[in-house]
Amino acid sequence: MEDAVTAILERPMTTDTPDTDEPQKGFDDLLRTTEELDTPDGFKAELIRGKIVVSPWSRPFYKLSMRSLRLQLAAHVPEGHDADTSPFLFSFATSERAYGPDLHVADLAAFRGSARHVDGDALSLVAELTSVSTRDVDWQEKLEVYGRHVPVYLVLDMQAQEITAFWDPSDHGYRAHMTVPFGKPLPIPAPFGFDLDTSEFVVTEEPEEDDDAE
């Protein structure tokens, strides 16, 4: 199993968009494949740059950071929304992407029904905790897509030990951002409007760096 997982990480499963006069149909086919993919335990599948990418869920030492973030956000979410770290796939049809963020705040109404993914328009905030293997995607690919769709995006850079809040999305990406080192309070903009305590995000012992980290 270890060899199989390594192969998945080193050579992400890819599926080219079908050659069709209906671009949306190509995205829908890829999204369906992503939803139905039988990933190994502890792994998730996302649709990134037209490819299905399989990567591991968060490592145990991220638990305290994710819990602290979830509990603080939960007290300030918009009415009808919920903060959660459970794995769900959110689709962004106009960008032809589908992501499973480390933490999301979303409208609970969007989870009704039998669909296997959630419309990204339901999101009011997403957060990603970087790893060695996913850092570039969190800072580039996801920043670009979230910046057109999601009101607030938080990047917890676990390697740099700092957190950045992006807000005010537009067709060209976020128009505002602020970065503070772990341990300093970070203002979280509307629709949340509070100062985030980042003291529990500090990594007191350097975790082992390996390509499976997330």
Characterization of the model:
This protein has 214 residues and is of the alpha+beta class. It has helices at 2-10, 23-36, 63-74, 135-149, and strands spanning 43-48, 51-56, 81-84, 90-92, 97-99, 103-107, 118-119, 123-129, 152-157, 162-167, 176-181, 186-188, 194-196. The longest helix has 15 residues, at 135-149. Residues 1-23 and 210-214 have low confidence and may be disordered.
Layout of strands and helices, then pairs:
Elements: H1 2-10, H2 23-36, E1 43-48, E2 51-56, H3 63-74, E3 81-84, E4 90-92, E5 97-99, E6 103-107, E7 118-119, E8 123-129, H4 135-149, E9 152-157, E10 162-167, E11 176-181, E12 186-188, E13 194-196
Parallel strand pairs: 4-7, 8-9
Antiparallel strand pairs: 1-2, 3-6, 4-5, 6-8, 9-10, 10-11, 12-13
Based on CA inertia axes, which overall geometry fits?
globular
Query: What's the total number of strands?
Result: 13
Q: Percent of residues in beta strands?
A: 25-35%
> What is the residue-mean pLDDT, rounded to a whole number?
82
> Class by helix and strand content?
alpha+beta
Q: Kindly, what is the distance between the CA atoms of the first and last residues, rounded to a whole number of angstroms?
A: 19 Å
- Low-confidence segments, given as residue ranges, are 1-23, 210-214
Rounded to the nearest angstrom, the radius of gyration is 17 Å
Spatial ordering of strands, largest sheet: 3-6-8-9-10-11
Level of helix content? 10-25%
In DSSP terms (H or I, runs of 4 or more residues), the helix count works out at 4
The largest β sheet comes out as: 6 strands, mixed
Question: Would you list the SSEs in sequence order as H and E?
Answer: HHEEHEEEEEEHEEEEE
